[in-house]
Amino acid sequence: MGSADSKLNFRKAVIQLTTKTQPVEATDDAFWDQFWADTATSVQDVFALVPAAEIRAVREESPSNLATLCYKGEDDDENARPLAESLLLAIADLLFCPDFTVQSHRRSTVDSAEDIHSLDSCEYIWEAGVGFAHSPQPNYNHDMNRMELLKLLLTCFSEAMYLPPAPDSSSVNPWVQFFCSTENRHALPLFTSLLNTVCAYDPVGYGIPYNHLLFSDYREPLVEEAAQVLIVTLDHDGATPTVDGTTTGTAMDDADPPGPENLFVNYLSRIHREEDFQFILKGIARLLSNPLLQTYLPNSTKKIQFHQELLVLFWKLCDFNKKFLFFVLKTSDVLDILVPILYFLNDARADQSRVGLMHIGVFILLLLSGERNFGVRLNKPYSVRVPMDIPVFTGTHADLLIVVFHKIITSGHQRLQPLFDCLLTIVVNVSPYLKSLSMMAANKLLHLLEAFSTTWFLFSAAQNHHLVFFLLEVFNNIIQYQFDGNSNLVYAIIRKRSVFHQLANLPTDPPTIHKALQRRRRAPEALSRTSSQEGVSMEGSHPAAPAEPGTLKTSLVATPGIEKLTEKSQVSEDGTLRSLEPAPQQNSAEGSPASEEPSQAWREQRRLSSASAGGQWNPTSEWVLSWKSKLPLQTIMRLLQVLVPQVEKICIDKGLTDESEILRFLQHGTLVGLLPVPHPILIRKYQANSGTAMWFRTYMWGVIYLRNVDPPVWYDTDVKLFEIQRV
Fold first, then answer.
1. Which spans are transmembrane here (predicted)?
2. pTM, 2 dp
């Protein structure tokens, strides 16, 4: 029978099934067998021959027929597994089926299903890497079959898309739960296969530039599906018990505690060998840097599109495996992750369809910034010249981070405003370790202070003054702990001293507050976009573009505020951290920390500022006074008191208008004994919570939805987890 004929017959059978309203007997073999006839169909054919709308119609109008179709061929047995479990186990078996998805090791082929059940799939791991040394010959057909099976697996797991986002949804996805349990005897080799396939992938193709133009690279679709399946199986609420076990001879750490039921999370949290960490980190860094290579050798490598999945995977690795996090920060290799993230943040800042990408990038940097080593690593000079739409500067990775953050805040999409707290928290966390800021970065920080301390900005929303507190904390940390190398920042503070005086003398009387807000209503722009001497952007860079009209995007749930996202710790003399959060049982029902700022203070502010009936924000004198009195200005005021007269004297004596002389003076100056006693360093460390877990779930499934349009697996279905919107 010709393939066209068999397709026609199959299509006829589908039409019969979808138009019959009466149940068809399960014993009517002539009817049901048409569906299993040997039609050599591709996935595209199936989607063409079985329109999604028709399947849904069958489900609505004659569910019993759909059930018969699904169960046909199964023996009726009281103890039979649920169909979902059989399907998942069949997929797992097929992922290690010799001559279908893996190379057969024997001369003879595997004939019977029994052989598959006795096969030790650990010998058939798809790629060398963690816990497996042998790299099998690439095989196009095997890769394609694996990819289709992984797509099917993702479809099974996608139940999450059809549940609305619940605030504290710790709901376990039963499909993922079963697949990642001990019921699946292939869990370990499959986890290893997916992880190794992603981390070993080199899109350049055998290390030769332009090689991808010669070979069509069929590995990428598989790698992409592998990354998506991995992040979905690792969607696990709550922090995992971290394993600090002894090192054993296996790739996984065997120490107690046993860890979570989800074996994928369990295996991920127990990887512990240095060479495995190196393999994973190098692989992820190589793939994340891929779009950057594009910019200075256009088209020299294949441009990959799955960097969002990679960022989620990197996040999961750091969150579930603390040893991996420490390994990442142990050397300057962490900068190979930082630079691509800053590149993505800078590139996506004006594009509302990439707000999710902005969030995941910032969350990763927030997680890293909670560790002292991250701040220390940032002092490494930045010499890579990735063309980015930022001013040219000479300096360190810390300067790069500050310049990019300044760009995001002053010229990003207005949807990014909720991230400002996070961005500045990262700068606060690293500030005690920054040995020498460039003049460019110092000016950017002072420009932010100027923008955030205008009266209309301070008075126009309940939390805006937090941004000023964060910036003052940055300046205090650097002055108290890194004064010696930071003459550029000290000089910038002296030049902009009027901003600090204005803050100290902030008006609190009702008429002035009212007038500031009137001014705000006339010019409602997000932030002053001017007056920061921009300088020329780097050569070869493109301005950050807004989203193309018509771009599809998925909605995201709101992220928790910074006080929920982080936990405050104090760094003691010996460098250890002491949590400043009260023990949970002392908390009130609201679960607010007893510390002054910000949660308790917030409720206080809510009370002090009468929010009028229309929900209009209405700042009062008491409210302004409540936080103005806490502005940490003492250190800076003392610095100005000591240094300004000396600098002015130099200028008068030498008739100076030249910065270099003043900078030389400041470099050799000292404030020892003249400043207030150094305050303890405060670090705000990221802490897992149900709010971020829900955010990650909606973001991740949104990415997967938008990346799988051929075939359009979920397109036009009744997705509830997010809305699909057009820009």
1. none
2. 0.85
Up-side HSE of residue 274: CA atoms within 13 Å toward CB? 3
Q: Partners of 554 in the beta sheet?
A: 724
DSSP letter string, 223-260: HHHHHHHHHHHT---SPPPPP-----SSSB--PSS---
CA triplet 164, 165, 170: central angle to 5 degrees?
115
Please name the residue that has the structure tokens 């001293």: 497
Which positions ≥6 away from 166 have C-beta within 8 Å? 694
Tally DSSP H helices, then E strands, for the chain. Answer: 33, 5
Estimate to the nearest angstrom the gap between the alpha carbon of 25 and the chain centroid: 51
Summarize pLDDT for 19-67 with one digit per residue, the tens.
Answer: 666 666 666 666 656 665 555 556 556 656 566 665 666 555 555 555 5
Tokens linked to 571:
């760094």
Q: Give dist(CA 571, CA 513) in Å, integer.
A: 38
Task: Using the structure block, give the residue that is written with the tokens 């807004």.
Answer: 546
- Cα 655 from Cα 650, distance rounded (Å): 8
Q: What does the alpha-carbon distance between residue 620 and residue 514 come to, in Å, rounded to a whole number? A: 9
CA-based nearest residue to 145, from 104, 200, 206, 98: 98
Low-confidence winner among 15-19, 436-440, 585-589 (lowest mean pLDDT): 585-589
Q: Which of these, 146, 130, 199, lies nearest to 138 by C-alpha position?
A: 146
Exposed e or buried b per residue across 231-261, where buried means at least 16 C-beta atoms within 10 angstroms of its C-beta: bbbbbbbeebeebeeeeeeebbbeeeeebbe
The answer to whether 621 and 509 are in contact (CB under 8 A) is yes
End-to-end alpha-carbon separation of the chain, Å? 48
- The token duo for 720 is 């509830």
